[in-house]
Amino acid sequence: MQTLLLKLWHETGKQVLLITHDIxxxxxMATELVLLSPGPGRVVERLRLDFSRRxxxxxxxxxxxxxxxxxxxxxxxxxxxxxxxxxxx
Length: 89
Fold this sequence. Notes:
Elements: H1 2-12, H2 23-29, E1 32-36, E2 43-48, H3 51-56, H4 61-65, H5 68-88
Antiparallel strand pairs: 1-2
């Protein structure tokens, strides 16, 4: 489903807003990722990402998701999410 949506995004040139709880999916598909605080949802951080563009340019999903930069982004975002949960608990 992710790859189909990315291909449609690339072919049509339309903007897509995807809301997901899956951090890896968000990193893979986003050109801009917006982190929200727990209720009330406020923008905590905006990140520019290029992994989706690499995929539509022909790089394999496996190659992208095993890239150290991808893994580093995932770990960073996970730490931000868990830090926020603790702060709002």
